[in-house]
Design brief:
single chain
């Protein structure tokens, strides 16, 4: 997550996806026939991706930052997994701060391309560290959800697209470049964009974006189903890759487990963890390594991600 701008789950029990699609502003969110339930996303698979991102950072100067070899190696790792799974991948190139950056876009064949459900995360770290929670966690969960789509040969009504953004830490550069590159007609085809930036914080909270009512309801329905309370996400508002989509009039939503804000006593009573400490004390630091992850939060949020992808695309 970008630092400089101001303030901005795996029990299973899945509710029928049709119940999610009543009400709200996401395009096409009318009641629908009962769809296939989302699969459980194995947290071990998500953590295996994180281990690879950690290894990449370690081999490339300790980070995966924009314009550095660790970033490109991270993108190549994700792309290879998607290509092997049958996705159509596109690498979009841009320049920022005198360095070449890259976005990775992956489309799952099929579905109505006039109604695109898009999920994304930023793949870059800051230069100070490997960025395993920020934002290997979101990137790995989006990747594993995409691979689950392929494993199940899911054929939704809507078209599925996944994205990994470059240079988010410099001000959402990659995602803004992508949105600006879209024609007005292609922007209008995106029914919703779901953003996942930091979802495995070691002292976690469970925060849901409130930008679009239907997307918000989808995530809240999942967490209610597993008995986890949520709060509205405010710490990262405007500080991550949903912002360019929102500014372009595209419905957005997402999940967040907290950065450098301090967990209150009330939040610790509700979610566990330690009051008076940051949700992620290693935010933007060298200690944001593979040990800086809460497995339960990562598991719950990855399952919620899949639940939303299945439910909103049915």
């Amino acid at each position: 997550m970008k630092l400089s701008l101001p303030g901005r789950a795996s029990a299973t029990a899945v509710v029928a996806a049709a119940a999610l699609l009543t009400g709200g502003s996401i395009a096409g969110a009318a009641p629908a026939p009962v769809a296939a339930a989302a699969p459980d996303i194995p947290v071990a698979n998500v953590k295996a991706h994180l281990a690879q991102l950690q290894s990449i950072a370690t081999a490339n100067g300790g980070n995966r930052a924009h314009g550095r070899t660790g970033y490109k190696a991270s993108l190549d790792y994700v792309k290879a997994k998607l290509d092997a799974a049958g996705f159509t991948t596109t690498v979009q190139q841009f320049t920022s701060s005198g360095r070449t950056g890259y976005n990775l876009i992956a489309d799952w064949p099929g579905g109505d391309t006039g109604q695109v459900v898009m999920s994304g995360s930023h793949l870059d770290s800051v230069t100070a560290g490997p960025g395993i929670n920020d934002n290997g966690s979101g990137s790995a969960a989006v990747l594993e959800t995409a691979l689950a789509v392929a494993r199940s040969n899911y054929q939704p009504t809507k078209h599925l697209r996944f994205a990994w953004w470059g240079a988010e830490e410099l001000g959402m550069v990659g995602s803004r470049y992508y949105v600006n590159s879209l024609t007005t007609a292609n922007r209008s085809k995106i029914s919703g964009y779901l953003n996942f930036d930091m979802i495995g914080s070691p002292n976690p909270g469970y925060f849901v974006y409130d930008d679009d009512p239907a997307i918000e309801k989808t995530f809240k329905t999942y967490f209610t189903g597993i008995g986890v309370s949520t709060e509205i996400e405010t710490e990262g508002d405007g500080r991550s890759d949903h912002a360019p989509f929102k500014n372009a009039g595209i419905p957005v939503g997402g999940l967040f487990s907290g950065a450098d804000y301090i967990k209150t006593s009330a939040q610790a009573a509700k979610w566990g963890g330690t009051a008076g400490k940051a949700f992620d004390a290693c935010y933007h630091s060298s200690c944001d390594t593979s040990s800086n992850i809460n497995d339960t939060a990562l598991d719950r949020n990855a399952d919620a991600l899949a639940y939303a992808v299945w439910g909103l695309s049915a």
